[in-house]
Every structure is written in C-alpha cells, then in structure tokens.
Automatic annotation (TrEMBL):
The lineage of its organism: Eukaryota, Fungi, Dikarya, Ascomycota, Pezizomycotina. It comes from the Eukaryota. Residues 1-266 form the PKS/mFAS DH domain. Pfam families: PS-DH (PF14765). This is Unnamed protein product. Residues 119-266 are annotated as: C-terminal hotdog fold. Residues 1-89 are annotated as: N-terminal hotdog fold.
Length: 337
C-alpha cells in the first residue's frame, strides 16, 4: 500500500528536477487489501491531492488515500501525506547538507554499537517458523529476511540483512522488500524467538523516508529498535542501510502494531463457584451523620486509640508559635480590636 503513493508521486513530480527521496507522514493503515484468487485482481483507487500551503522549493506535498472495491463497496485502506524531496539546485549557503550528514552519522553510530549487545544470528527458516507459531504467515515471495540477531535494549534491538528485490530499475522499492523491513519489528517483540505473542498488524507510521536510489542496492542492512512509550504503547524505529553503510535507504519512525488475536491463557480457566450464602453488613454513610454520630462511630471503630503525650506537647508548642506570630503581625500593623 505504501509503494503505490510513492510511484504515483513520481508521476506528479516537477519535470526536470532530480528526486532525492520520498517522505511519508502520519500514515494510518486502516484495512488490508484482500486480493481474490484468480486473475481478476482487485480494483483500487488512489487519491493524490496537492497541499500548496506546505510546499517549498525543496519538496512538494500531497495528501493521499487508497481505497479498494470489494463486494460492491469501496473500503478505505490507508491514508497519509507524502513529500517529494528534490535535490537542491544550489547548495544551502548556511547548512549545506550538514543535517543529512549528522543524521547519517548518528544512525551509523547506533548501528555500529548494536552488535555488541546482540546475540547469535538466526536465519530465514528459523525466523519464519517461529513467526508462524505467533500467527504471522508469510508466503515464499514475502520471506525476504535473510538473517537477524537480537539483543541490546531489553532484548528489543535487532540487526539483520534483508533482500532487496528488484523487478524493474524504475521501481523505487519493491513491496516485498518494504514488507521485509517492517517484519523485523516482529522479531524484536518476540525477543529473538523466546516469546510467543498475539498476531499483530501495522496500523500507524508516524514518518517513513525512502531514498530515490534504493533500488540500486542488492541487499539492505537493518537496525530495528522497539521501545515502550510513556503511554505504554510499543513504538518501533527502523533504519535500512546499503551494504557499504554509506547511506540510509529507508528510515521508519513511530511504527505501531495492533494485536488482532489474543494469546491463549496458560492458567486454568475453570469457572469459579459462587458462594451459596452471603452476609450483608450495614455501614453508615458518613455524609449523612451529624458530628455526634460521627464521633460515636469513630470511637466504636477505634476504642483503644490513645494519643501520644509527646504529640500533644509538640502540638501545643506549634499552636503557641502561630499565635505569637499572628500577634506580632497585628502589632506591626496597628490593628485595633
């Protein structure tokens, strides 16, 4: 679904300008595309609406919405925004490409530190066999992960190798390649195959950037980190580099998954028998009691409550200090009774 707006945006780009990449934002994945068996396929409709208010000399912005026609009705599958990023005609005299270089340096530094905490490497067959136990069924075409290693931050940091499928040189990124990159998130939440989790699907991506020359790479090196936000939501960030680690080809921020199945409970689910007899205990509502009645109830609940002598002495001292301070203030202001 996310490859379609990228390819559509290429057709709407300004003629004569060189595209450096695409940035997708605020992506809501609402429903999967159900392709029926056979050669009929499924009818789709992609809306691309330009947003001139956010346009500048470095990018064009479009809002997009993808719908499919199934069972005589249209279903909205995803929506979001996409920027067409252009190479500048002239270098920025102030910053140049400093921000891009700093972002690449930070990403490479995190990637270089990841192997220190990641354990042994597992390969495609083991990875997809365990994913299948959690309900993630991938066909042969979508099994693009070659190897993964997990460790680091709470066993939720993953480094790996993903095949970069190339059908046509004109394609920016193949759908199965992008799906393989996102699949690395699953390996981070199952902590390298040591856990079984409910089946989940991606439902939201805050930001995703794809380089225009991504198709030139034969394979991608990925770095995936899943962390828990302040609200308890699992958020995943993914970086996919070229094999020589010279450029970030795909970056994903704020990837959210939503469970569509519940994990089977391990404890016994036998029903609890209710008691045959019940005892009602009447207790007064303190909001309806007078002061004397409230005093009687409290004394009845704590009949042997004794106030320590030291506490009373300190309380008397505190009261005297407050009275003295008040009298001093009154005398300074010449207040007459």
């Amino acid at each position: 679904m996310l490859v379609m707006p990228i390819e559509a945006a290429k057709q709407l780009a300004s003629p004569g300008r060189v595209i450096s990449g695409f940035k997708l934002e605020d992506i809501s994945l609402l429903a999967s595309i159900r392709i029926p068996q056979g050669e009929g396929g499924v009818e789709t409709n992609l809306y691309m609406r330009p947003d001139d208010s956010m346009e500048n000399k470095y990018s064009h912005l479009f809002s997009f919405k993808l719908c499919t026609y199934v069972n005589d009705c249209w279903t909205e599958n995803c929506r979001g925004r996409i920027h067409i990023l252009y190479q500048p005609d002239e270098p920025d005299p102030v910053n140049g490409d400093r921000l891009e270089r700093e972002d690449l340096a930070d990403s490479l530094y995190s990637f270089s530190k990841a192997p220190d905490g990641c354990g042994s490497t597992v390969y495609s067959d083991v990875i997809y066999d365990h994913m299948a136990r959690c309900g993630f069924e991938y066909g042969k075409t979508f099994r693009q992960i070659h190897a993964l290693a997990v460790g680091g931050k709470g066993e939720r940091e993953v480094i790996g190798d993903v095949n970069n499928v190339k059908v046509s040189m004109q394609d920016t990124i193949h759908p199965t390649t992008l799906d393989g990159i996102i699949q690395t998130m699953v390996w981070s939440i199952i902590q390298g195959g040591t856990r079984t989790v409910p089946t989940s699907v991606p439902t939201y991506i805050a930001s995703m950037r794809v380089a225009a020359n991504c198709s030139k790479c034969k394979a991608l090196k990925t770095h995936t980190v899943t962390e828990t936000s302040e609200t308890g939501t699992l958020l995943t960030s993914i970086r996919a580099f070229d094999r020589d680690l010279r450029e970030v080809m795909v970056s994903i921020e704020g990837l959210k998954f939503t469970a569509i199945t519940s994990k089977a409970p391990t404890e016994s689910t036998s029903p609890v028998k209710d008691n045959l007899c019940h005892r009602f205990e009447c207790k007064p509502d303190i909001n309806l009691l007078s002061n004397d009645e409230l005093h009687t109830v409290c004394r009845g609940a704590y009949p042997d409550l004794a106030i320590p002598k030291d506490f009373l002495i300190e309380l008397d001292f505190l009261v005297m200090v407050r009275i003295t301070e008040t009298l001093q203030v009154i005398s300074q202001r010449d207040i007459e009774p």
